[in-house]
User: Fold this.
Amino acid sequence: MATTTATVGITSADLTPGMSLGISATTTLYQTGTTTGLELVDIGAGKLTQASGADALHEALGTADTTNWVYICNNSTNVEQYMKIGIHETIIGNLGSGEWLWMPWNMGDGDAEINIEAEASGEIPYEYAIFKSTYTLPAKT
Amino acid sequence: MATLTPTLSLTSTDITSDLLSFSVTDSLSVTAPHIGLAKTSVSTTGANNIIQPATDGQTYYVYVKHTGTSDGSTVVTTTLNIELTGDVVIGKLAAGEFMWMPVGGHSLGVQLQASSGTIIAEYAYFTKA
Assistant:
């Protein structure tokens, strides 16, 4: 089994007067339960344009309640450019230039694709990683 | 206005034959309101566990961790739902797992819901300046 470790740190020296902030957490990426690690991963990068509308970063996995993790980073340096992040029809939030997210993606039924959409003109470079419990390649057409 | 530095590291020696080891960081300008780090007992009614309020169009950075206990010491393995207000499930955390993501650009907040019983969750949110 593969062992993949995710660690987050969130720090601030000036959020609260007289008290710095230091949040830290580490977890191993498991399939359901705590014995088998996630074995499948897609890591890539692309460019997104407003003209393309909302694009599926990954199609739905077809099985709900599986454990999957998504990392996305907006690599644009233009502060006017952001990416809308959603699951099917639900908009979760906006990822600004330079920002990244780390989120669980368990709603892998037929209507739960991860989608991304560029706002503001020009190309938005992005990178992503998706760690998956299961995946079946689409059939040829 | 304050500066927040979130960092994510992903490592694995065996998920592929090529070593996975990368780290990403950012510098965010944030303002009030914010919750630096809090702990709450989450029940099975999401509407009773709203951790981030909704302000139309505002973006928040949200951190949530499932502590793996029901009362600070009793181990639980039930999942913790991450939901937008209105009971819209966007993800689930197992014991020990965490998430960090921007939420907003709409009028919905964030709420937590235990799949059964109670779960102690840690959370923080910060308002994008």
User: Anything to note?
Assistant: Residues 65 and 119 of chain A are 31 Å apart (CA to CA).
